[in-house]
Fold:
Amino acid sequence: ERGDDEEETPPTKKPVTDHSVKVASHYNKLQEVGLEVRSQSRIFYMRNFNNWVKSVLIGEMLERVRGAGSRNVSVLDLGCGKGGDLLKWRRGGINRLVCADIAAVSVEQCQSRYEDMKRKSYNNEKIFSAQFITADCSTEVLSEKLDDPQLMFDICSCQFVYHYSFESEQKADMMLRNACERLKPGGFFIGTTPDAYELVKRLEASDSLTFGNEIFKVSFQSKGSYPLFGCQYHFNLEGVVDVPEFLVYFPVLEHMAKRYNMRLVLKQRFSEFCEEKVKKEQHRNLMMKMMALELFPCEVGGRQASESTEEYSHAKERCCRAGLRQVGTLSRSEWEAASIYLVFVFQKMA
Ligand code: SAM
Structure:
């Protein structure tokens, strides 16, 4: 209404909603902690389990794109966070990675983790090239920000992110557009997100508007009717996540994805996914490895060693060889939280 407002806000700058600000500032504030602190956490095994789900999913999809003849694999990590999946992309031997997230501090940390990884790699290991973008992927068009405007992706990975966009149809559609519009034919949009059916089932079974246990709490504002978009709940997980999220009504997502020529290939609850994948020895072994808690003091020469140092990894290697590890499992409370999620895979039709 006031002319001077227009001067303060350049017309090219998109308005940022309160919700996006809350999400970005929440993730920006999260501290990176070392193995010592992580292993004390009540969700230590759940985090490892979630990582295992992502590793198996990513590993299998990379095998599929290679099996289909892709030699130069490009990946978009949509909502990359602090780069928790960088090692998975490295192990998967991809060629190009684009990381995007709304939280600028997280993107910076992701980039410095990548630079670190490159610095410490052995001479003959070719680490993928990467671009880092800070953007609200539910309101901004990512393809306009790519260094290489011709770049097409084999995989878009969106891990524990997509539900933030279900605030409105426009946002959910923009996130979907960013995930799918630059996928090669046959390419995959993969991810993990809370299962709306499971959330509503637990809410309806509760005699209040909240449910959960000592490690997580989900709170709704009402129950009985659930709009397709903007159905907000508050998710609190052991100081890791404490933000408003939105129900993703999967049939709507599936329908919307058709606009981008995407067909649903897999939708599986974590429990079903796990049950199926542990039958494979390779995945079972990885699970054992990832659920192992190293039982050694992270000290080198009497002082605390940082996890990223070479001496730390040597000390760790020695202890692992000596068998100083213990394979743990999820507590009942952790399982109640982990079993809320599902895995999805969409494929771009030719
Ligand atoms: N994908 C990472 C992982 O699996 O470790 C991070 C997951 S974290 C639970 C959710 C991430 O989604 C946060 O880093 C947050 O900043 C990001 N995010 C939420 N809304 C977003 C949006 N509109 N655009 C881009 N990133 C968003």
